[in-house]
Amino acid sequence: NPTTTTLQIQIPTTFTTPIQGTLFNLSGAVVQRYGLEVGVNTVSTANLSPGIYFLRLEGPGYAETFKVVKVD
């Protein structure tokens, strides 16, 4: 992190169900949603304006938020 046009998200093999990823801007508005599978997931950030975002990953018994910085 930072990212330019793509973001790679690794979901560990300990998860047996898909993880929902939600990207928020600083105002709390949802920018993108992702259905993520076990392994490495590559998602596009090309359409995002440069700035700071938060990626919330959620699944059964799991929730975590990460800071994402989009640069030109």
In short:
The chain is mainly β and 72 residues long. 0% of the residues lie in helices and 61% in strands.
Write up what this structure looks like.
- The protein starts with 5 loop residues before the first strand and ends with a strand.
- The protein is an all-beta fold.
- The strands form 2 sheets. A 4-stranded antiparallel β-sheet has the order 3-2-5-6, with no helix packed on it. Strands 1-4 form a two-stranded antiparallel ribbon.
- It is globular and about 35 Å long.
Helices and strands, with pairings:
Blueprint: E1 6-11, E2 19-25, E3 30-36, E4 39-44, E5 51-59, E6 62-70
Antiparallel strand pairs: 1-4, 2-3, 2-5, 5-6
Note the run of SSEs as H and E.
EEEEEE
Biggest sheet, open or closed, and with what strands and sense? 4 strands, antiparallel
The number of helical runs is: 0
Approximately how much beta-strand content do the residues carry?
over 45%
Count every beta strand, where a strand is a DSSP E run of 2 or more residues.
Answer: 6
The stretches of 5 or more residues where confidence is low (pLDDT under 50) are: none
Helix content: under 10%
Structural class: mainly beta
* Strand arrangement, major sheet: 3-2-5-6
Provide the gyration radius in Å: 12 Å
Q: What would the average pLDDT be, to the nearest integer? A: 93
In whole angstroms, the N-to-C terminal distance is 13 Å
Quick one: overall form? Answer: globular
